[in-house]
Automatic annotation (TrEMBL):
GO molecular function terms listed in the Swiss-Prot or TrEMBL record: myosin XI tail binding
Compartments (UniProt record): Membrane
Domain of life from the UniProt record: Eukaryota
PANTHER family listed in its UniProt record: BNAANNG28530D PROTEIN, PROTEIN FLOURY 1-LIKE
GTD-binding domain ranges (all copies): 60-150
Keywords, ordered alphabetically: Membrane, Transmembrane, Transmembrane helix
Name of the protein in its database record: GTD-binding domain-containing protein
Keyword S-adenosyl-L-methionine: no
GO cellular component annotations of the record: membrane
InterPro entries reported in the protein's UniProt record: GTD-bd (IPR007656)
Keyword Endoplasmic reticulum: no
Length: 150
């Protein structure tokens, strides 16, 4: 009886079946099949090769399942590797974005400090210019008084 037939008769899928891994896979599968159907019952001698216990289609199905598991593990490894690369790339991009934000904030702070300094300088210059204008006006008025009065 194949694994497909076994799973159909027992109402389980191959995915739901918990099969052992490693060298004991064939022996455990053999025991599982023999206990489910007494007509196909056979024992597992310790000294015989496990391949002698199975018809070829069962062995090929087990091998196919093993290959499927290997393939899925490789696929999962590839996906995990890709995920790690994407995570690393996203992390690097986030770090670069944060460093750019910090750099721009520092530049903005420097520009604002410089703008405040220029603003103070302009106010001081304007105050100085107003003092000079006031002084010159008073000097002109004095000179005009001297010219007209004297």
């Amino acid at each position: 009886m194949s694994l497909r037939e076994f799973s159909r008769r027992n109402g389980t899928t191959c995915d739901e079946m918990k099969l052992p891994t490693g060298p004991s896979l064939l022996i455990e599968t053999c025991k599982l099949v023999s206990t489910s159907n007494p007509q196909n019952s056979f024992t597992v001698p310790e000294d015989q090769e496990t391949e002698e216990l199975f018809p070829e289609d069962q062995i090929s199905e087990v091998m196919l399942l093993r290959e499927l598991v290997k393939s899925e593990r490789r696929r999962a490894d590839t996906i995990l590797s890709d995920l790690e690369k994407e995570t690393s790339a996203a992390s690097t991009a986030a770090e670069e974005a944060m460093s750019m934000i910090i750099r721009l904030q520092m530049e903005k702070s420097l520009v604002m400090i410089e703008a405040k300094q220029y603003g103070r300088l302009a106010e001081e210059k304007q105050g100085h210019d107003e003092e000079v204008i006031t002084f010159l006006r008073s000097t002109i008025l004095e000179m005009e008084r001297e010219c007209h009065g004297g």
